Structure formats: C-alpha cells, structure tokens
UniProtKB/TrEMBL annotation:
It comes from Lutzomyia longipalpis. SMART domains: IG, IGc2. This is Neural cell adhesion molecule l1. The lineage of its organism: Eukaryota, Metazoa, Ecdysozoa, Arthropoda, Hexapoda. Residues 1-27 form the signal peptide. PROSITE patterns: FN3, IG_LIKE. The keyword Nucleotide-binding does not apply. InterPro entries: FN3_dom, FN3_sf, Ig-like_dom, Ig-like_dom_sf, Ig-like_fold, Ig_sub, Ig_sub2, Striated_Muscle_Regulatory.
Length: 304
C-alpha cells in the first residue's frame, strides 16, 4: 500500500483535530508575563498594555465582562479606559484568541487568558477607626486612631476637626404659645486646620461648663475630605462656693468623732515617744563624754 493510500485512509475527524492543534500552536502568545498594578484617580484615562505578536488576536476581559462603554481597544492591542470611575477597579486579563471557529466538528475558538493588570481607583480617605472625646469643665481632648496601612493606601495628607454646641432639647415658646424654631449652631473649626497625619490627639479650649458639644474629625487627601466621624460629649459643671459648702456639710454630718479621737491619741502618743527618746539620747551623750565633763569643771572653777 502506498503512502498516499495510507494518508487517505485516516479519518477525516483526525485531520481536523491535527489542523486545530497546528493553529493553536501557531497562535500569538502574550510576550510579557509581568503582573502590573495601576493606581489612578477618578475621572482620568488609563492605558493597559498588551504586547502580542498579532494585536488583532488580543481581547480584554474584566472579571468575566468583555466590553464596557468606556473601553477603547487600541491598534497595538492595548486597552484605553476613558473617564475612570470606581466601577472600573478590578483585575483585567489580556487574551489571545485562536480563530478556529470555522472548523467543522464543533471545535470552538479557544483563548489563552493571563491576568496582566490590576486597576485601583483612588478614593477619598476612609473614616477614622476610633474617635473619643474626654471633656472637663472648659477643655476637651480629642483622641482618634487611623490604621497605618490605610494611612498609606489612602494617601492621607492631614486631618481636620471641628465642633459645635448641641442645642438644648427643651422646646421654647413665645408669648402667644407658638413654638420657636431652634436654629443649629454653626461649626467651629479647630486649629490647626490641617492636622499632621502623625498626630492622634488634640485639645480644645474655652468651652462652656455643663454644655453638650458635638465633635467631628475626618482625613484629607488630594481628592478631598473623607468620611466624617462625630462624637457628642458634655463638659463637667463648674464648682460654685455653695456647692463646696454643701459637700463639706455632708462630710461633717457623716463624720465619726470616735475616729478623730483615735487619730489624735495616736498622734500625741507618737510625739511623746519621740520626745522621751530624744531626751534619753541627749542625756546619755552628755554623761558619757569626758571632754564635756572637763569643760564643765573648768567653767565651774572660773565662776568660783
């Protein structure tokens, strides 16, 4: 049997399969296997590169989606994303397509997917992770926390804080019995307006005792202010003379005289013991020192 007869005896399906393998092996593979990450601001344009031998065989996909309205495929296979929004963030894959759809036997076109790019869209900073206020009579201390990783990821440049008095809940009425609408107090910015990103504590002065205040703080980056976090705190009452007298009188009424007598007795006993001990030490030193006795005798002779 000749070679031509053997070749013709092969099944037609095997020939189609070999043809598909030849086309698959001759497709344009992606040259670059680097994983790239792109960080871009909202509203900007971004070009994602896809280097292949034949740019016409390259397609782009983003997490299962092939095309979007703001996608523009370039002649060199790269992808232009216009007017980026938060919806454009995610993983992008550049694929090469094998055009075998025309082959019989239901051999569909195949692709070699490879994740090449990750797009991150910058956003205003997130809210602080912790915020508390410790208020005294006229001073309040603001304390907050911000994770270091988010501080870098959000490119935080500064913090800003402000406060205002909280209006009383009591409803005011005029002479005719009509309810007076209570207007909210304006926010007062706390100095400095741009707090260093390394600072985690700030003091506020000149507050009014026994008043409620609302405090807010937020982070800033080049995109603007982030999410605001608010806390309400009430300053302590300022002590008046009558309040001090009232507290003293309460202590006087509750005072136990027996405890006072015991304390005085113990104190007097300690003083008596110290006096006796000191006298004994001085007396012993005077009688045990010969020089002192000689000086005493000489003084007596001089006097005589």
């Amino acid at each position: 049997m000749s070679f031509g007869a053997i070749f013709l005896s092969f099944p037609i399906s095997v020939l189609f399969f070999l043809q598909a393998l030849i086309r698959l092996s001759s497709s344009s593979p992606i040259k670059s296997d680097e994983y790239r990450e792109f960080i871009v601001d909202p509203g900007k344009n971004l070009i994602l590169p896809c280097i292949v031998n034949d740019p016409l065989t390259a397609i782009w996909m983003k997490e299962g989606h092939i095309t979007k309205p703001n996608w523009i495929r370039q002649e060199n296979g790269s992808l232009l994303i216009v007017n980026i929004t938060m919806n454009d963030a995610g993983n992008y894959t550049c694929s090469t397509v094998n055009g075998t759809a025309s082959l019989p036997g239901n051999i569909a076109s195949s692709s070699l997917d490879y994740k090449t790019s990750n797009v991150r869209v910058r956003t205003p900073p997130e809210a602080v992770s912790f915020f508390a206020v410790r208020a005294s009579t006229v001073i309040a201390v603001l304390i907050w926390e911000y994770p270091p990783k988010k501080l870098i990821a959000n490119s935080v440049r500064s913090f800003t804080a402000d406060f205002r008095r909280v209006p009383e809940e009591d409803i005011e009425v005029d002479a005719d019995g009509n309810i007076i609408e209570m207007t909210e107090t304006e926010w007062e910015q706390i100095d400095p307006p741009n707090i260093s990103p390394n600072i985690r504590q700030l003091e506020v002065y000149h507050l009014i005792p026994n008043n409620s205040y609302e405090f807010r703080i937020w982070a800033n980056n080049h995109l603007g202010p982030g999410e605001k976090t608010s806390v309400t705190a009430t300053t302590k009452s300022q002590w008046q003379e009558k309040d001090l007298i009232r507290l003293i009188l309460v202590d006087v009424r509750n005072f136990d005289t027996r405890a006072w007598i015991v304390a005085v007795a113990i104190t007097m006993g300690i003083l008596i013991i110290l006096t006796i001990a000191t006298s004994a030490v001085l007396f012993r030193e005077c009688h045990s020192s010969p020089d002192l006795r000689i000086e005493t005798i000489e003084i007596k002779q001089i006097i005589i």
